[in-house]
Design goal:
This protein is mainly α. The protein has one domain. It has 20 helices and 2 strands. Strands 1-2 form a two-stranded antiparallel sheet. A hairpin with a 6-residue loop joins strand 1 and strand 2. Helix 4 packs across helix 5 and helix 5 packs antiparallel against helix 13. The longest helix is centred in the first third of the chain and has 34 residues. The relative contact order is 0.18.
């Protein structure tokens, strides 16, 4: 390992570096285990605490939340059949069945160990790929960056959502919001309606907090005021996989890690899709697929390995290209900007200490996550006994305080508006992730498109004279039409089956 990495690792191992890492890991476990919260909410809730921190320590804490929260959601998925996060949905299938059979501790231990292993493999691939991609990205011009943005929007509009049309509409909404403010080329006002608040564009962080945190609280208003999930499993005794079981699953863990990392690299896809693909892949490869869904350890190991490996994958395009690989990575961009940093290829040249601190912090977070889980599983499960009305009140106070600190009381209006928008979008089945990704990629897409057209002598046809740009645009088209072709093929096969019957 490189000297900068060892320097960053030694810095984190000091008390001043270990404390933010510890806080982030514990916070990630807690927000992951509470249904309705997750890595995004955890990051936006703790973001105000990082304003006075050094950038490297702040980002280590926030990425630790990301790592730990993905595993945290599996605790409620296994114990109560209630996934704490979207990425834990597949874990409920076999995890809860194991709990019903009396193997809750074994299921949680399997999730813990496989999450840690998958997370470490994902970070290892991140450390190997990100610097190389950054070197390639330094050679990119406006056409290549435009094509990258199109690829990101194509992925988020076509993968991991039930309705592609609704995902496209969400992405278009995000692109529209990205145009609000002063035109980067001409300097003209666009859609500001005379409001000074909008001249600099939509405030990013308050918008994200509103979309995800406030909208979720609004969704829970009509639920019983004193409802809790319960704490009857607070004394679960965690049991790891035996060495023989670990050896038996070695190829499953490796395959799931690679699947998770690859899915994570694709912009906007996310950990939940990685878990679904890994689970289905391993079920197909199993000698007895009929056992899957009845309560087997492999059914916990595959999705948990994959969804945690996707965290490292999602950070690859974020650090090397400045493009978020997930909604959480998009929120992390806000944290970078708050601390005066812009993720992308230049970050490796201007702030290598921050990059290597993130690498080291993510390794340590995955290890700490496993160790802390022995102690914290009992504590975080007891949080489920707190009435949601009390919990939501605390969340609202933190969100509003953070918005005011970021930009004054005007940000509270942004918080409220986006909370209401997110509430209605969720109720009508419109995914929120495309809005976030498009809001991030929109300015980059527009600026590079206009620069590329100025450079090109053949208009849009000039994009296809550059090999990398052409490949990226063709890949974008294929990603977009693949779900359409799959649905058409399934309908055709269904009609043929009906005709034969």
């Amino acid at each position: 390992m490189s000297s900068p990495f060892l320097t960053a690792l030694m810095s984190i191992c000091r008390l001043s570096g270990l404390l933010p890492l510890l806080v982030g890991t514990m916070a990630g476990l807690i927000v992951g285990v509470v249904p309705g919260l997750g890595s995004i909410q955890g990051i936006v809730l703790l973001l105000p605490l990082t304003y006075a921190m050094d950038p490297d320590k702040a980002l280590v804490m926030l990425t630790a939340i990301y790592c730990a929260s993905v595993f945290g959601g599996s605790i409620t998925a296994i114990l109560f059949r209630i996934p704490g996060t979207e990425s834990s949905v597949m874990t409920t299938i076999d995890g809860y069945e194991l709990t019903q059979k009396g193997y809750a501790g074994k299921a949680i231990g399997t999730a813990m160990l496989c999450s840690g292993i998958g997370g470490i493999i994902g970070v290892l691939i991140l450390q190997l790929l990100a610097p190389q991609l950054a070197q390639i990205a330094l050679k990119f011009g406006p056409p290549e960056y435009f094509a990258l943005c199109v690829l990101g929007l194509s992925c988020v509009s076509s993968v991991g959502t039930q309705s592609q049309l609704k995902a496209v509409i969400s992405a278009l909404l995000g692109l529209f919001l990205a145009t609000i403010g002063i035109d980067p080329i001409s300097g003209a006002d666009r859609f500001t309606f005379g409001l000074n608040l909008l001249k600099s564009g939509v405030p990013f962080t308050p918008a994200i907090i509103g979309l995800f945190a406030i909208s979720e609280i609004l969704k829970q208003i009509d639920k019983p005021a004193g409802r809790t999930v319960g704490s009857q499993y607070a004394r679960v005794k965690v049991q790891f996989l035996t060495l023989a079981e670990l050896v038996r699953m070695k190829w499953l863990i490796l395959r799931s890690s690679l699947i998770g990392t690859w899915i994570g690299i694709l912009p906007g896809v996310g950990a939940s899709t990685a878990a679904v693909i890994a689970y289905n892949q391993e079920m197909r490869l199993s000698k007895d697929p009929s056992k899957w869904g009845t309560g087997i350890l492999e059914g916990v190991a595959a999705p948990e390995t994959s969804n945690n490996a996707s965290v490292g994958g999602a950070m690859v395009p974020l650090l090397s290209l400045g493009i978020p690989g997930s909604s959480t990575a998009a929120v992390l961009i806000g944290a970078f900007l708050i601390h005066g940093l812009r993720p992308g290829p230049l970050l490796f040249m201007t702030n290598p200490d921050v990059v290597y601190s993130i690498f080291a912090g993510m390794y340590m977070a995955n290890i700490l996550m496993v160790l802390l889980s022995f102690v914290i599983v009992r504590l975080v499960v007891r949080i489920l006994a707190v009435p949601y009305s009390t919990l939501s009140s605390v969340i609202i106070v933190i969100c509003v305080s953070g918005a005011i600190v970021l930009g004054g009381f005007s940000n509270v209006w942004t918080l409220i508006v986006f909370g209401i928008v997110g509430f209605f979008m969720s109720n009508y089945g419109f995914p929120l992730s495309p809005v976030v990704i498009a809001l991030v990629l929109g300015p980059m897409l527009e600026a590079n498109l206009r620069r590329a057209l100025v450079m090109s002598q053949h208009g849009f046809l000039g994009f296809f004279t550059r090999p990398i740009t052409a490949v990226l645009l063709i890949a974008s088209f294929l990603y977009f039409i693949a779900p359409i072709l799959n649905r058409w093929r399934r309908r055709r096969m269904g009609k043929e089956t009906t005709t034969e019957a």
